Amino acid sequence: MNRRRFLLLSLLVMLSQRGMAFFKVSPSDQEGPFYPVVPIPLDADLVHHANGAARGRHLELKGRVINQQQQPQSAVRVEIWQCDTSGRYRHPWAPGSDRVDPHFAGFGSVNTGSDGAYRFKTLIPVPYGGRPPHIHVKLFYANRELLTSQLYLKGQVGQGGSRGARSGGLSGGSEPMVIDPRSVGENQWRADFDVVIA
Fold it and tell me: What CATH code is carried by the domain that includes residue 125?
C-alpha cells in the first residue's frame, strides 16, 4: 500500500469515527391535552408551592441540553409539566383539577446556562387514565420551539395499551426518552437526562 493510499484510508477512518461520535437527536412526542393555559413561570421548584410541600416522591431532575456534537446549548428555555401524585393536572380542562394538590405547582421552567445545564425539583410521575407515568417537556430557543416530548420511567414505558408511549407520537419510530430515578435520601430521588437537539 503506498503512502498516499494509506493516508487517505486513515483520514476516512478518522472521519468515520468522528461521525459515530454524533448523538442521536432526542425524539419528539405528543404534547398532550393539558399544556398550561397560563404562562409557565421561570421557577424550577414545583414541589414547594403555596406555603407547603407537595405529596408524593420528590425528584431532582437534572441534566444538560446539548447538540449532536455534545456541545452545551445555553439560553434554552426548558419547560416541564405533569400531574400531581393523585394523577391530577393543574389545568381547567383536566378531570379533578379542582382537587389538585395545592402544594404542587404542576409546571415550571428554567433557562440553561453556558454549561447547558437544567435542574428541577418535581415529583416522580404516576400513571393516570391508562397512561404510563411521564413528565412533559418542551424546549425553546428565543421564540422558536426546538422540541416537545415526554420523559418516561424506566420499565414503565409500555404501560397503557394503545395509549402507551410506543404507539404515541414519537418521531421516526424512535425509542422514548427514559429516566431511572434513584433514591438519595428519605423521600428524595434523583434522575439525570441529557436532551439532544439538532
Answer: 2.60.130.10
